[in-house]
Known about the structure:
The protein is of the alpha/beta class.
Amino acid sequence: MYRTTNTSQEKAEDFELTFGGGLSSENRWVKLAKLIPWSEFETEYANQFSPKMGAPAKPFRMALGALIIKERLGTSDEETVEQIRENPDLQYFLGLTKYTNQEPFEASMLVHFRQRLNRELVVKINEQIVLKRQSREREAQREKQKPEIEPSNTEEGEPLSNKNQGKLILDATCTPADISYPTDIKLLNQAREQTEKILDRLYEQVQDKFDRKPRTYRRRARKDYLAISKQRRPRHKKRRQAIGKQLAYLRRNISHIDTLLTTGASLSEIKPQSYRMLLIVNELLRQQQSMYDSRSCRIDDRIVSLTQPHIRPIVRGKAGTPVEFGAKLSVSYGDGYCFLAHLSWDNFNESQDLQLQVEQYKQRFGYYPESLHVERIYPNRANRAFCKERGIRISASPLGRPPADPNLELIQQRREDEKFRNAIEGKFGQAKR
């Protein structure tokens, strides 16, 4: 159930404090609260809930505000709730009208807030915040530059010029996931240990039907794993032999689990996490067995973490870290603001997003960018033609053989473009921190 709330909050000075006084209008959380269009997206957020059934959900402002506080402060879920409980500025930001020493919600609610606020909704909110702030900046700038006498030939409501304006930077990055570096032997060992735990729980249900417990050779398997993992750089032959042994141990365990299930053991009696882990292990076994048989190191949708099976290896080709593990982002940067265009756990070619990002820039600001600053992967023939039709200068070397007499002005222009493109790298570092 969701009950619509009044998001048009009172002034900061009217926020009730137990010790008297009021909040300052110059407070950073008060300023940020004025920029966010709370009421514009509350209806879209409320559509996720039944209007009559269920317990009342927390307001949209509290859900979004709590996630913003968590990311701005860089705290855990538990610490975020404590910060909100102790800080009246944060309580005002969440839409409360007076200070309270009670927790507004439990820390576990942040998990539900993240699920309810999907990527599409967050992108819309981000765009509205940017446009709202830009309109205020333009109005302030017009007031400063406003002449004492208005020109007579300027009609009220005259549309702005459609001439290309501004600079747009496009780039992609990979957000690092919190996993240890995956290796085949390590993943198989972890999978074997998980199947041993599941086998033990299933055996407890039907142990009266067996004379003895199914043999898993877990001590020998552990010893074989340590023998190869302690070597700094084992040879390919030894590593392949170790993988073959772990595959055999894992197949044996899964075979025993199937036998226990056919004799009366039930997966419903174990934890849902264990059942999910069993499905992941079966898929991991299929992938690893396929690569082992074909002597290959690649397979589609490769699992690199048992606890986070959605993570994929992203080949980036950078020195020192040619492969990264996490979600890949395609981002546009213009006028000091970043916009997310594409997010995927699977690798993709970011040059395919160029035309979409340029059109989104036109929708946001009403005109195309004057120049486009990108890496070498972006300026293919289709993207070059697209930019040429719209009068956009793209920061790329011309196609064909380099001229015998290079144009020094063009060389200097490319250097300046590369310097300007560094701004988005700073935004990537800020976001990842």
